Amino acid sequence: MKCAAFDYLRPESVDEVVKALSDADGEGKILAGGQSLVPVLALRMARPAQLIDVNRIPGLSGVRSIDGVVEVGALVRHSRLLEQSAHPLLAEAARWIGHTAIRSRGTTGGSIAHADPSAELPVVALVTGATATVAGPSGTRTVTADELFVSALMTSIADDEMITSVRFPVPRRWGFAEFARRHGDFALVTAIAAEFDGATRIALGGVAPVPVRAPEAEEVLAAGGSVRDAAQAAAEEISPTADLHGSVPFRRAIAAEMVRRALAQAGID
């Protein structure tokens, strides 16, 4: 199939993007890397009246460190995340995103805004306590990761708003583990462990409509429990659903093993 007809706009500033989105009255879509949007358009699962190409807007492609936080512009490609060294956890997560062609076009802001339950960057955002800077008709606002993700492919960003950057705090130590049928496939389970101020956070992706923390597993570690006990606690507190890729017990078992591996990689006993 081919895309339905649409108007194409190429604004030169964030303010112009916001105005175009407002004028479109919910019928406008932002085009950045297009790795998620274009296939949906081709299948006519979405038929926006306007595509707003943001690739030429200056100031959205930078990566900079600010007092233990790495600010990533919305147009930073996954390949750039992979190459940067200021945030090693982001680099590792980017390594697991799709294939070379996808990483060369896909963007940080696009991945966060798309909110795919199997995507890696939303899990990183949640476990690090990332904040997104969002531009809209009333100016800019800051949205925390736990407020941002609402459901599968849904965020709290309004139709006339756009993400301009995301700030990711850098953990003291971290571990990343992912299970997919083949490298580059959508993740069935992603687990990340990250330590901040002496406390370990655990987040999982692919086990719910949005990335989730594992507070009971975190409490096990805080109380001096073993990694294996924490991994089991994480598996028991999630509520995965069965699908063609695996049953609920299968996903729980994979989640336990991924959490164990992430904690081991982080050097957490």
User: How many structural domains can be distinguished in the coordinates?
Assistant: 3
Straight-line distance between termini: 52 Å
How does the major sheet shape up?
5 strands, antiparallel
Helix % is: 25-40%
Could you state the order of secondary-structure elements as H and E?
EHEHEEEHHHHHEEHEEEEEEEHHH
Overall, the morphology is globular
Secondary-structure class: alpha+beta
What is the level 1 CATH name of the largest domain? Alpha Beta
Tell me the number of helical segments per DSSP (H or I, 4 or more residues long): 11
Question: What is the CATH architecture term of the largest domain?
Answer: 2-Layer Sandwich
Mean pLDDT reading: 96
Tally the beta strands: 14
Compose a concise summary of this entry.
With 269 residues, this protein is of the alpha+beta class. The chain has helices at residues 14-24, 37-42, 78-83, 88-95, 100-105, 108-114, 120-128, 145-148, 215-222, 227-237, 248-265; strands at residues 7-9, 28-31, 50-53, 63-66, 69-73, 131-136, 139-144, 149-151, 154-155, 162-169, 173-179, 189-196, 199-205, 212-213.
Could you please describe the fold and organization of this structure?
- By secondary structure, the protein is an alpha+beta fold.
- The protein folds into 3 domains: 7-53, Uridine Diphospho-n-acetylenolpyruvylglucosamine Reductase, domain 2 (2-Layer Sandwich), CATH 3.30.43.10; 63-169, Uridine Diphospho-n-acetylenolpyruvylglucosamine Reductase, domain 3 (2-Layer Sandwich); 173-265, Enolase-like, domain 1 (2-Layer Sandwich).
- 35% of the residues lie in helices and 26% in strands.
- It has a 5-stranded antiparallel β-sheet.
- Strand 6 (131-136) and strand 7 (139-144) form a beta hairpin.
- Helix 10 (227-237) packs antiparallel against helix 11.
- The model has no long low-confidence stretch (mean pLDDT 96).
